[in-house]
Amino acid sequence: MKPLDPRLLRYSAAARGYLAVTVVLGLAATGLILIQASLLARLLAGAATGTGLTVLAGALVTLVVVLVARAGATYGGEVAALRAAAAVKSQLRRRLVDHALRLGPSWLARHSSGEVTTLATRGLDGLDAYFARYLPQLVLACLVPVAVLIRVGFADWISAVVIGVTLPLIPVFAILVGLHTKTVTQRQWRLLARLGGHFLDVVEGLPTLKLFGRGKPQAEVIGQVTEEYRAVTMSTLRVAFLSGFVLELAAALATALVAVEVGLRLLAGHMSYQTALLVLLLTPEAYLPLRAVGAQFHASTEGAAAARDVFEILDTPAPNASLTTPASASSGRRVSLHTDTIKLSGVSLVYPGRDRQALSAVNLTIRPGDRITLAGPSGAGKSSLLALLLRFAEPAGGRIEVGGVDLTSIPVGEWRRQISWVPQQPYLFTTSVAANIALGQPAATQAAIARAAQAAGAAEFIEGLPDGYATEVGERGLRLSSGQRQQIALARAFLHDAPLLLLDEPTAHLDAVSARRLEEAIVVLTANRTVIQVTHSQNETRDISRLFTLDQGTLSQASSPCPAPASALLAVTS
């Protein structure tokens, strides 16, 4: 691990001011160390030679002031470092969450949500030790030895040479130990992330595990990972203690060497008593910051390892992540799905790590007011086409245009505000029913939320809940049935009131009664909107203008099961 990872500063501009204060206070502490040693040597030498207390009173008062100032500088540096850590953690967490959302469901599906959660919480909390302990000591380790060496050189050049020769032994030993510590600590963090992530996933799926009698095997897995983490943690502590012993031994031997040569020359009368005291007082101060930074290095490695994992995620290219130019800048106007046509020309899609194309040369033109159904077996590419429209994925080939404007030139937020999406399994958060309905419209009034629930057919069951719209739905909405969760999702779509509606098999996992109620709500929802509905079977299609089938990523037009409405406009380009 690098002594100072520049990415922590690059991604955390808010902490630079605090770090600058830490450096300034480190410089002040260095100067105070030199003044303290000089005053103490003078006082001890004066006391040994019989100098009166009245003569030494001024130096004694100054020494007390210096000690208080040094304690204040140390305290202030630690407070500034802690504030820097808080700023860094806050900024990195926001960046991590925002970037994970930009990466989209396809990336999240390949990574454990539990591990990402552990990384954003327990992992980044480890940066406290990095900023509050390691960085201040690193500043002192760079300043104090050099300052001490210069000051000792003016007092006694022979002792300065001895210190200068032995001083590099401390960082050499620290680097040798650190090379071994890096591997052990990284393994410790990986196991912690795996343990935290797996435990979170097990807790979320506990009802299902109990239902199928798989609770005990998962408990055994958690026990196994916990035991591995315990063993690695003990190994890391063993390395930390041994490294501390090595650094302390090297510093003690170097200090003893200086003390021996100073003592011999003092006995021979080649050095004054005050100079000898000054050298002996400053010599430990030269080695102390290096020993301390080696010890704090081990305490900070977990946070630094977690930060590296965060940087790996932040460095992962996101679909359209760099495209922030407003559509008006490239086309002279803003696109609107109320009036603009969506055109897919030869669009292909390949997911990372897969050889086969999810979509192959798809050509489709969707005009405002169209009602389109995409049918096909599982894995045919239906959800992949919706992912392209939602900009959760980027085309590997071809082009998507909206009103003649390339889709990639439209800011993601501006584009998604014009889309309502009802997935197969909508996610509900552990909050109230009203908050879940207003997920995309946080400023919505209670009356607007109630109207959206009424239009989705959800008002009746919501009003029957213990606290009505204020009822907590539980994690993932487990306190509600599948049909009720889908009705909440439809209420979200009603409240959002977007011109383009994407329906991804919303009735696929419902019983006949719930599916019929949901279809009735969908009929109301789809009025006066452009609708693209995904279904598993052509037999489920109804009230559409055109039917398309997807088979192994290839789109083709099928016969419409019902007459197309006169207002429907849809063209397929070849």
List keywords for this structure.
574 residues, alpha/beta, ABC transporter transmembrane region fold, Rossmann fold, 2 domains, six-stranded mixed β-sheet, five-stranded antiparallel β-sheet, 18 helices, 11 strands, 61% helix, elongated
Structure description:
It is a single chain. With 574 residues, the chain is an alpha/beta fold. The protein has 2 domains: 6-314, ABC transporter transmembrane region fold (Up-down Bundle), CATH 1.20.1560; 337-571, Rossmann fold (3-Layer(aba) Sandwich). It is 61% helix and 10% strand. The chain has helices spanning 6-10, 16-48, 53-108, 113-125, 127-155, 157-166, 169-204, 206-211, 215-267, 273-314, 327-331, 382-390, 412-416, 433-437, 446-455, 459-463, 482-496, 512-525, and strands at residues 342-349, 359-366, 371-375, 397-402, 405-406, 419-422, 500-504, 530-535, 546-551, 554-558, 570-571. The strands form 2 sheets. Strands 6-7-8-3-9-10 form a 6-stranded mixed β-sheet, sandwiched between helices. A 5-stranded antiparallel β-sheet has the order 5-4-1-2-11. A hairpin with a 2-residue loop joins strand 4 (397-402) and strand 5 (405-406). The longest helix has 56 residues, at 53-108. The radius of gyration is 34 Å and the shape is elongated. Residues 321-332 and 561-574 have low confidence and may be disordered.
